[in-house]
Amino acid sequence: MKKSINLWQLWGFALTSFLGTLLHFLYDWTDKATWSALFSGVNESTWEHMKLLFFPAFFFAIIQSFFFRETENFWCVKLRGTALGLSLIPLLFYTYNGVIGKSPDAVNIAIFFISAASIYLYEWNLLKKANVRCKHPKIALIMLCVIALLFVLFTFRTPQLNIFKDPITNTYGI
Fold first, then answer.
1. Disulfide: which of 44, 53, 81, 143 matches 119 by Cβ 3.0-4.6 Å?
2. pTM assigned to the model
3. Rounded Cα distance, 80 and 98, in Å
4. 8 Å CB contact between 120 and 10
5. DSSP line for 111-133
6. pLDDT at 69
7. Cα distance between residue 151 and residue 147, in whole Å
8. 76 vs 6, 69, 111, 138, 153, CA distance in Å?
9. Which residue ranges make up each domain of the chain?
């Protein structure tokens, strides 16, 4: 099982990185189609970059869950890993920008990949040890679904907070 976990987590990182990169451009590639705004980035805000990480990771978790049915703590591990990755994007971005100033695109791209790698390394460690207690795995799955819903909702009904503000156009959402 340990080799299997290694391979699954490596594939998860690769798929999340690849799809997240594609989702960065999908909204523009589809001529700003509403359906693509549901899960792709619609602007350059920090929130929209978090969405680029969340949806591929969640999609992969759904696929992976069919093969990890016997792993009782699966959804709790996925929730923890996703929370870590999503937290790292604003943490690293705002820390770097606060210390250095405006970050070049290469740093922003690195932040995305570091966050994606962190998800799968952290989950790998938790799945390998199998010591995460998960009393309510369905609640963990529901929480991931709520996060997905918030990403969609806040794309169309965007709160006027800096994390949602596009630094290039100074607009929010679509």
1. 81
2. 0.91
3. 27
4. yes
5. HHHHHHHHHHHHHHHHHHHT---
6. 87
7. 6
8. 18, 13, 24, 9, 24
9. 2-164
Residue 87: its pLDDT value, please? 97
- 3 state SS of 165: strand
pLDDT at 3: 57
Q: Which two tokens stand for residue 152?
A: 């969609």
d(CA 82, CA 115): 9
pLDDT computed for residue 133 by the predictor:
81
Extract long-range pairs of 103-106: CB within 8 Å, 24+ residues apart. Answer: none
Positions of the chain with pLDDT lower than 50, given as ranges: 2
Query: pLDDT value at position 130?
Result: 74
Partner residues linked to 59 by β-bridges: none
**Encoding tokens for residue 35?**
């359906």
Helix (H) / strand (E) element for 85: namely helix 74-100
Token pair in block for residue 120: 């799968």
Count of residues in the chain: 174
103: Cα within 13 Å, side-chain hemisphere: 18
In the chain, what's the furthest Cα-to-Cα distance?
A: 49
